[in-house]
Amino acid sequence: MAEKKGVGHAYNIDFLNVVFAASSLFLFLSVVWMVWDDFDRDWKNTQRRFNELEMQVTQAQLDTAAGSVDKARLAQLQADLQAAQQGVSANQAKVAELQTKLKEADNVLFRATLDFQSVKATYDQDRYDFEATRNAGGSGVEKKEQRALGLEQRLNELTLAQQKAEADRAAVQKELTQYTGQAADIAKQIQTMHSEETRLRKQIDTIAPSAVKDYFRNAPLLDFMAPTLKVRQIILPNVVDDVNFTRVPKMDRCQTCHLAIDRKGYEKYPQPFTTHPDLEMYLGGSSPHPIDRVGCTVCHEGMGQSVSFVDAAHTPGSEEQKAEWEGKYHWEEPHLWDYPMLPTGMTQASCAKCHKAQVYIPKADALNVAYATFERAGCYACHKTKGFEDVRKPGPILTKIESKLSPAWVKNWIRNPRAVKPTTWMPRFWYNSNNSAPEDAVRNEAEIDAITAYLFASAEAYQPAEASPPRGDAAAGEALVKSVGCLGCHVVGEGERDQIGPRRTFGQPLENIGNKTSYEWIYNWVRDPKHYSPATYMPNLRLTDQQVADVATFLSGLKGPEGDAARATPDAAAVDAVLLDYMKGVMPFADAQAQMAGMNPEQKQLELGRRAIGRYGCFSCHEIKGFENAQPIGTDLSEEGSKLVTRLDFAFISDIPHTSKIAWFRSKLHDPRIFDRGRVLPPLDKLRMPNFDFSDVEIDRLLTAIMSFQREIQPPAAMPVRSARLDYLAAGRTLVHRRNCVGCHIVEGDGGDFLQLVEDPSLGPPMLTPEGARVQPDWLYAFLRGPITIRPWLNVRMPTFGLDDPALNGIIDYFGAISNTIGPFQTHEIVQTASVEGTGKELFDLLRCQQCHVLGEVPKDQPTSNLAPDLRMSSERLQPDWILGWLKNPATILPGTRMPAFWPDYPKSAFPQFDADAEAQIRAIRDHLMTLRGGPNPKIAAGATRAAN
Amino acid sequence: MVLIKGFVNTLADPRLFFLLACVGLAVLIWKREQLASSAVGYGTLGFLGIFFVFGTFDPNFRLIVTKPDNVPIVGLIFLLAFFVWYSLREGVLNDRRIAAGQGPIEKAESDRVWVWPDLVYIELIALVLCSVLLIVWSIFLKAPLEQPANPANTPNPSKAPWYFLGLQEMLVYFDPWLAGVVLPGLIIAGLIAIPYIDRNPKGNGYYTFNERKPEIVLFLFGFAVLWSSLIVLGTFLRGPNWNFFGPFEYWDIHKLAALTNVNLSEYFWIRMLKTGYPSAWAVRELPGIVLVLLYVFALPVLLGKSVFKGYYEKLGPSRYYVTAFLFLAMMSLPLKMLARWILNLKYVVAIPEIFFNI
User: What is the pLDDT of residue A829?
Assistant: First the structure.
C-alpha cells in the first residue's frame, strides 16, 4: 500500500485487466461446464443406445413382414391391377372428363360447407344472446329474436345447398367408379397386404436418426422445447406413496431407461432394454396388472421418481451382480430411500400389498412357498403376524408327553434337535453363538433338565386304545409308508430340508422315530391319531389293524443317532443359582431368597423349568399345561416389511451394511443371536430367538415372507374387487395350504409335491383345479367325510381328515369358486328318447370307453396308468355339463390326461351318427352315462359307517 | 499416528475444546506483538492445511469433513483464522505507528478515495470469481433427492443449518425458551444497541487494538469463541444422540455418555440441608430464584461499584446497566457450561409444574 502515493490508481489497472479477463474466462467456462453437467445424463445415453436397438429390431421386423407377404398372390394382384388399369386407359377421355367434374363438385361442396359453418357459428352465438337476454329480462329481446330467426332461415337454406352439393358429388363419383373402381379395389387389397410393412416403415421414419432430432431438438439449452430424449413417467392415481404427511399418487419414471419393458420383441436383450418376463400377468394392456394402472415401484419398490441408477435404489440379486454394478454404475447400498428395490427373487413379496384379503395368492409361487416356510418354521407362533393369527400351534402337544417320550430322549432332543433329526423344524435354544461358552454349559444343562422335568411332571395320563398291539412285518410296512401317501406330509430322511420343501415337511420327519418313542405309541397313533391328540391335523388312513402293525413295525425300526450328550452335570447348587437369577429379575432379591428357602430341590427344579419355558416361549409352539393363556414372546411382524432400517439394532456387527434391512434380517435368520456378539450381557438379557439352522434358500424364502408384511397404505382402488367368490377363494386357498392338501394335490397350479415321488403322474393324487366343475357338491361333501376308492389300482389313497362342516363347506365353495360354479343346484335335461338312448349306447361301445374305464370290474388287459374311474359313478358324482366339456377336449381340463380326444374336428365328427354332429353325439354319450347305476358311492358308504358306529 | 489421532480426539472433548479456545484467545491477545508476524499467520494456515490433509487419510474424518453440508465449515475455519490474525496484525502495526506519533496508516491519505475504476473494478472481479466458485461448488457438491421427511424417523443426529449450530449447542445447557428465544433475541437486540452504547470514537475507519482493547476482546470472545467455535464443534464433533465424538472417532450410535445431572434445588435441600424437597415449588426453587435475581439485578450494581467502576463513570447509569445486562446475559452461557461440567448442574431454577426452567 505504500505506492498509493500520488495521482493515479490504488491498483495496477493493466494487471486488473488481465485478472478480469482471466476471471471472465473462468466464468464462461464454468457456465459451459454447468450447462454440460446438467445436459449430460446417463439416461439420455441409455435412450440413445435404445434408439439404435429399436432401429435394428424394427428393421428386422420389417424384413420379416416383407418376407412373409404371399408372393404368388401379390403377383396375381399386380397383374390384375395392370389389366384393370388398361381398362381405365381405354376410356381415358371419359375418365378425364369425369375427374374434372369431380374436382368441380368438390369445390362446390367445400364452399357450401364453409358457408354453412360460418352461418351456423353466428346463429349459435345470436341464439345464445337472445336466450340469455330473455331469461335475464334485458332490453332489446325482440330485436335479438328477429335476428336469430332470420339467421335460422338462412341456415336452413344453406343446409339444403350443402346436401345438394354432396349428392351431386356422390353422383359424379359413382359414375367415375364404374370406370376406375376395379383398379382401386385391387390397389387397396395390395395395400392391405403391405399394411404391416407400412406401419413398420412409418415407425422407422419416426425413430430414424436425423440432424434436426439429434443435433437440434436434443441440443443443450434447446432441449426444453421438444426433445426426443425425455424423461418418461407414468402417474398412477390408484397406487400411492406415503410421504408421511399425506399420500401422493405414485410417479414412476422407470421407463425412462426400461424403454421396452411393456413391448414384445425385446425378450433377448439385456437390461435395461429387455421385455418384462411375464407380460401376460404384468404390464400388458390386457393383463390384470396393466402398466398404466399399477406402474413399477408398487411391486419392485425403489425410488420411482429418480432417473439415476444409484438413486433409484436398485438392489442386486446376488453378490456377483453387486460386484458388477459397483464397477459399472458406482453402485452403493441405497441409503437415501427408505424402501429400496427388492432383489428380483423377492418381488412377489409386494403381491401382499394389494392382495391382502388372502394369504395364499395363485401364481405367486415364490410367495406361497415363503409363507409355507414361515408356517412350517412356526415363526407366527412367537411373532404375532397379521393373516396368521388363527393358525394352530406348529408343534405337537406336550400334555401327554409321559406316554410318548422318555426324559433322556427329550433332553438330547432339545439340546440339539437336528443332531437327532436333520430335517426337523424344531430349533436349537442352547449352545448357540451367545451361550456356548464353556461357562454357559452348566446353566444350559440346568435349564434343559428343568424344562424336561416340568414337562413330565405336568403331563397327564394317557390310556392307549391298544395297550399291547400285535407286531407286523417291517417290509410290508415300508412299502405301505412309501406308497399309501404318508410321504405327502412326512419325510423319511431324504436329504436337506430346503430341497424337500415346506410341504413335505408338514408332519414331523420319520427318520430316527424308533429311538424317539415306543412301538405301542406309534401303533396307536397311526391307527387313530385323534385318540392321542384330538386337534391334530394328522388324518386317518383307514388302514387295517394288520397294516397298522406293519407300518408301526417299520417305523419303530427306524433308528439313528442319539443326539448330543450333556456337556455338564449341574448340581443342586447350580440349579439354585440359575433359579435365583430368574426370580430376582421379577421380584426383590430378599423375596426371591425367602421363596426359594421354602422349596425342596424338586420344587426348585420344576419352578426353574416353568420359568425357563416362559422365557424361551416353548408354549408358543407346543401345548403345555400351565401356559394356556401365555402370550407369544416375539416381536409383532405384521408390518415388519415396512420397518425402517433405523429401527433395527446392528449392535457391534459391522461387516454388513447398516443401511440394508435385508442384510439385517439375513444375519438374524442365519444366526438369531448374532447381535449379542461383542456385548457384555447378563444371561437373562441375552437374545433368545432359537437357531433353526436355516439354509440360504430358506432364508431367502423367509425374507420374502417378511418383506411382504407391509403397512397398509394402498387405497381400496388398488385392491382386487371384493366379491363372495373372492372370499371363497381366499378362505379355500388358506385351508388347502394349511391342511397341506397341496402336499399331494395340485390346486390352482400350486403344490403336488407327492406327485414327484410316483413314477407316472396318472398314478398319483389327481389335480384338483377343475374339481368344482367336475363333481357334484353333495357327492364331494360325502366323499370328503368318508372317502371311497375311485381308482382301486392306485396305492396312494385319500385319507379321512375328519374336517368339521365349516371346513368341508369351505372346500366345496372354494372348488366352486375356482370354476365359477358356486351353488349346488345345476339343471340339466337328459333327452330320453329311444333313438338317443340307443345311439348313446352305440357310441359308448364304438368308442370303447370300457377299454380303460371300469364298469363294475377293472379291465384286465390295460397297463394301470391307462385305467380310469368306474363310469357307474357318473350320475351321482359328475356334473352333467362338465362331462360335455370333458368329452369334447379333455386336455384343456387336465393337461397330460390319457383320455383321448375323440372329436378333434369339433363340431364335425368322424362318426356318422346324428349326421356327424359332434355335439349331439357327445350329449348322447353323456346321457347314456347318466343312466348307469350301481357304482361305489360315498353317500351310501357314509350312511353305512354311521350305522356301524 | 494412532497416538496423534487419540490426542486430537482427547482435545476435542467439549470441556478441553472450550478451554483451549479461551486460552487461545487470551494468548492471542497477550502475545499479539509476536503473533502479528506473517510467519505466524501463514504458519497457522499451513498447519491447519496440513492437519486437514493428514486427517483425510482417516475414513471417519474424511466422511465428516467431505459431507457436502459440512464443507462450508472447513472454509469457515480457514477464513476465521486468517481474518482474526489479519485484523490483529493490522491493529498491531497501526498501534506501533500511533505510539510513534504517526497516526494510523489508513488516515495517511484521507483526502482521497479511489472509487472509479479501482474499487468498482475489484468489486466486479470479486463478483465474477464468487460466481465461478458457486457454480463449480454446485457441480461438485450434489444435493440428492432423499426420502420424504418422516416425523417418526428423524435423522440422528438432527442438526440445524450450520449457522444455527451455535444456538443448537446452547440448547444443551439451557431450556428451549432461553436458548431458542431469549438469548437469540438478546443477541440481535445487543448488536443493534452497540452503536448507542459504544461512544468511543477511536478506531473509526482504521485497524487498532490498543485504542479499543475491551471492546475487541469482548467481541472476539462472543464471536470467535462462543459463536464460531461452537458452530465448528456442533458440525464436526456432535454425533448420534448429540454425543461428542473426536474428529477421528467412529460415529457409533450405541455410544453412551453418563449423564446424571441435578438441579440446584437438589444441591441445596438434599445435599446441603439433608432434608427432602419442600412441597411448594416456590419454596423449593427459592435458592435458584434468588441466585438468578442476584445475578441479573445485584451483580451489575456491585460490578459498577468495583471492577467496572471506570465504565460506570464513562457511560453513565443507563448505558452502563444495559451494557452490563447484555454482558451478563452473554456470560451466562460459559458460566452455565462450567457449572454443568464441574457440578453436573442441570437447572438453576427448575419448575416443571409451569414448564419454566433456567
Answer: 64
Cβ separation of A27 and B105 shorter than 8 Å? no
By CB atoms closer than 10 A (0-12, 13-18, 19+), residue A710 is: buried
Grid cell in block for residue A312: 433409484
Determine what percent of chain A is predicted with pLDDT higher than 90: 64
Q: Does A13 touch chain B (CB under 8 A)?
A: yes
**β-bridge partners, A290:** A283
- Classify domain A378-638 at the CATH superfamily level: Cytochrome c-like domain (1.10.760.10)
Q: Do A34 and B138 touch (CB under 8 A)?
A: yes
Cell numbers of B353, please? Answer: 409444574
Chain B residues in contact with A2 by the CB 8 A cut-off are: none
CATH of A724-818, one of 1.10.760.10, 1.10.8.50, 2.40.10.340, 3.20.20.70: 1.10.760.10
- Rounded Cα–Cα distance for residues A106 and A114 (Å): 12
Give A443: exposed, middle or buried? Use CB within 10 Å, 0-12, 13-18, 19+: buried
Q: How far is B213 from chain A (nearest CA, A)?
A: 26
Q: How many CB atoms within 10 Å of residue B288?
A: 21
Distance (Å) of CA A893 to CA A451, A748, A819: 54, 12, 11
The bridge status of strand A289-290 relative to strand A282-283 is parallel
Whether the CB-CB separation of B72 and B133 falls below 8 Å is answered with: no
Are A311 and B132 in contact (CB < 8 Å)?
Answer: no
| Global confidence as pTM | 0.88
Give the count of beta carbons closer than 10 Å to the beta carbon of residue B258.
Answer: 5
Nearest C-alpha in B relative to A32: B135
CA dihedral B292, B297, B300, B306 (to 10 degrees): -100
Q: Domain coordinates of chain B in residue numbers?
A: 2-144+203-242, 161-202+258-358
Chain B contact present for A10, CB below 8 A: yes
User: Is ipTM > 0.90 here?
Assistant: no
Q: Which residues, at least 6 apart from A634, have a Cβ–Cβ distance to it below 8 Å? A: A379, A382, A383, A384, A617, A620, A689
| pLDDT mean across residues, chain A | 90
Contact A374, A705 (CB under 8 A): yes
Round to whole Å and give the CA distance between A603 and A595.
11
Spatial neighbors of B89 by CB under 8 A, at least 6 apart, are: B36, B37, B38, B41
Residue with cell 383398379: A183
Cα distance from N-terminal residue to C-terminal residue, chain B: 43
Give residue-wise pLDDT tens across range A727-766.
999 999 999 999 999 999 999 988 889 988 888 888 889 9
Banded pLDDT at A948 (limits 50, 70, 90): very low
Matching CATH number, A834-948, of 1.10.3720.10, 1.10.10.10, 1.10.760.10, 2.60.120.10: 1.10.760.10
For residues A516 and A409, is the Cβ–Cβ distance under 8 A? yes
How is B195-226 classified by DSSP, letter by letter?
HHH----TTTTS--SGGGHHHHHHHHIIIIII
| pLDDT given at position A10 | 79
CA distance A370 to chain B (A): 29
C-alpha cell at A750: 400350486
For residue B122, list chain A residues with Cβ-Cβ distance below 8 A: 11, 16
Dihedral angle over CA of B172, B174, B179, B185, nearest 10: -150
Residues ≥6 apart with Cβ < 8 Å to A174 = none
Spell out the SS3 assignment of A290-306: EHHHHCCHHHHCCCCCC
- Look-up of cell digits 397313533: A525
Identify the three-state secondary structure at position A274: coil
Tell me which residue has cell 428395490: A341
